Amino acid sequence: MGDLLRAGFARLWRAPVFWLGVAFMGCWGGLVCYSAWEGSREGIVYFLGDLCRYHCIATVFLPPVFCALFLGTEYDHGTIRNKLVAGKTRPAVYLSSLVLSVTACLLMIAAYYLPVVCVGPFVTEGLGIAPGTLALIIGGELLMAAALCGLCTLGSMLISRKAILAVTLLLAVLAGLAVGATVEGRLEQPEYFQGLMMDASGELRDASDMENPDFLRGRERELYQFAADFLPTGQALLYNFNMIVHPRAMCLYSVLILTASTAGGVLAFRRKDLK
């Protein structure tokens, strides 16, 4: 597998999609720092911990785009078949592709953190969060990205048509974000109505004592919270909007998704007919 990784990284350093991703995330980090500086001039207080989470929604698009454009070309160019003809095993081919996709996406995220770490302390008012908690959240964000890479690598190694792969991965991410937004919208419903409401007679009355029928309770709320914590796209929204309830459980779910997708992907790829 060492030869596969060396060849893969040599190709990665020459891949335009990788450097475009690095440039995009670096610019995104710079823009976030600039927005914090502009806000500080108007009296808005930003914390460095806030800046460390504003990349998450953009991050969910990195694995599908990278895997579709980088790994997807291996079927078109016959690279995978050549690797197997050269004596490489299918698990080694799959795992090397996974390592490449995870490493590439983590490097793109690191490009976001570079301006945040270098410039952020000068435009914010401290961390705003305990260092240990911030480290746990950043670790969870990276695990979330790795879990997405695992799922996208699975698709890349099983779908041999590049165009179909790209559409499938992007639609899956968009659908995941839509589901995550719907779930978290339900979780954010207040228990009681707020403000004034018009009753049947047309008069305004204080609604603060009226229960909201859309507020989730009991087992139903637990199921919605699990869905938000488990889905990588749901995690991205939770991290981005600072709605984290179970940070350690989210890290565990990401590890489980990465492990399960890798194990299932290796088994499925071993049986795939490469023609």
What does this structure look like?
This protein is an all-alpha fold and 275 residues long. It has a domain at 2-167 and 247-271. Helix content is 73%, strand content 2%. The chain has 13 helices and two strands. It has a two-stranded antiparallel sheet. It is globular and about 70 Å long.
Give a topology summary.
Elements (H helix, E strand, L loop, with lengths): L1 H11 L3 H26 L6 H4 L4 H4 L2 H10 L1 H4 L2 H7 L4 H34 L7 H28 L3 H26 L8 E3 L5 E3 L11 H13 L1 H9 L6 H25 L4
Antiparallel strand pairs: 1-2
Helix pairs in contact: 1-8, 2-8, 5-8, 5-9, 5-10, 8-9, 8-13, 9-12, 9-13, 10-11, 10-12, 11-12
Summary of the model, kept short:
The protein has helices at 2-12, 16-41, 48-51, 56-59, 62-71, 73-76, 79-85, 90-123, 131-158, 162-187, 218-230, 232-240, 247-271, and strands spanning 196-198, 204-206. The protein has 275 residues and is an all-alpha fold. It has a domain at 2-167 and 247-271.
Percent of residues in helices: over 70%
User: Which assembly state applies to the chains in this document?
Assistant: single chain
Q: Give the beta-strand count.
A: 2
Provide the gyration radius in Å: 22 Å
Order of helices and strands: HHHHHHHHHHEEHHH
Average predicted confidence as pLDDT = 89
Tertiary shape: globular
Give the uncertain stretches in residue-range form.
none
Strand proportion, as a percent range, falls in under 5%
For the largest sheet, list the strands in their spatial order. Answer: 1-2
Sheet with the most strands, sense and barrel status: 2 strands, antiparallel
Summed up, the helix count is 13
Structural class per helix/strand content?
mainly alpha
Roughly how many Å apart are the termini? Answer: 23 Å
